[in-house]
Amino acid sequence: MLGIIGAMDEEVAKLKEKMKQVHIVEKAGMQFYRGALCDHEVVVVKCGVGKVHAAMCTQAMIDLFPVDGIVNTGIAGSLNADINIGDIVLAKDALEHDMDVSALGYAPGINPDLKDDENIFKTDVKMLELALAAAKQAELSVNIFTGRVVSGDQFISRKDKKKWLVETFDGTCAEMEGASIGHVASLNKIPYLIVRAISDKADDSAEMDYPSFAAMAIDNSVALMTEFVKLC
């Protein structure tokens, strides 16, 4: 069974519309929709915005359902000048950029309870390959990129912060949930992937771009996910 997690209603509503034989399970204020999507068994849920919501949702999904893979869909701000609004980023890995205990001698992004290499949550290679194939089948009129997703409980809208995320973490796009989902999935040894459609440029124009382009970005993400499920 594939688990699909989105942060906002808009991100999962269109997937739920395509589902059949839906059974709803409620847990911790979240509604998990279990059913068939493109003749494949899935469970779809809105986790809510931010790392705590995302982590709680991921663990609940793993505890409640026999998921053998998790995809986090949604939107993000681009950290790369070549990645434009509407384009899609498929994560090779993810990290939590706002984890900061540097006052104790640790580098930014490092959680002292994890080994250094465990602070970067690698996505599943097979799922990434399937997503790349799905993107071709979806025939989207946008570009597809792979790279690093950096997550934190912040909406990135300043050029100096954007520059820091690139220079410090080599980030490709920034958002607020993916790495925490990767964190929980990795500890549970569940393969996972992050799919992010770009809604803004994560700079001084972000607050203006986001409302205008979020819907378009979500449409691209849903089209890719539909093809992805068909290939699973």
UniProtKB/TrEMBL annotation:
Cellular component terms (Gene Ontology): cytosol
GO molecular function: adenosylhomocysteine nucleosidase activity; methylthioadenosine nucleosidase activity
Key words of the record: Amino-acid biosynthesis, Glycosidase, Hydrolase, Methionine biosynthesis
CDD domains listed in its UniProt record: MTAN
Annotated pathway: Amino-acid biosynthesis; L-methionine biosynthesis via salvage pathway; S-methyl-5-thio-alpha-D-ribose 1-phosphate from S-methyl-5'-thioadenosine (hydrolase route): step 1/2
InterPro entries listed in its UniProt record: MTA_SAH_Nsdase, Nucleoside_phosphorylase_d, Nucleoside_phosphorylase_sf
Top-level taxon: Bacteria
Biological processes, Gene Ontology terms: L-methionine salvage from methylthioadenosine; L-methionine salvage from S-adenosylmethionine; nucleoside catabolic process
One Pfam short name: PNP_UDP_1
Domain annotation Nucleoside phosphorylase: ranges: 2-230
SUPFAM superfamilies named among the record's database cross-references: Purine and uridine phosphorylases
EC number(s) on file: 3.2.2.9
Official protein name in the record: adenosylhomocysteine nucleosidase
Organism the protein comes from: Coprococcus hominis
Upper classification of the organism: Bacteria, Bacillati, Bacillota, Clostridia, Lachnospirales
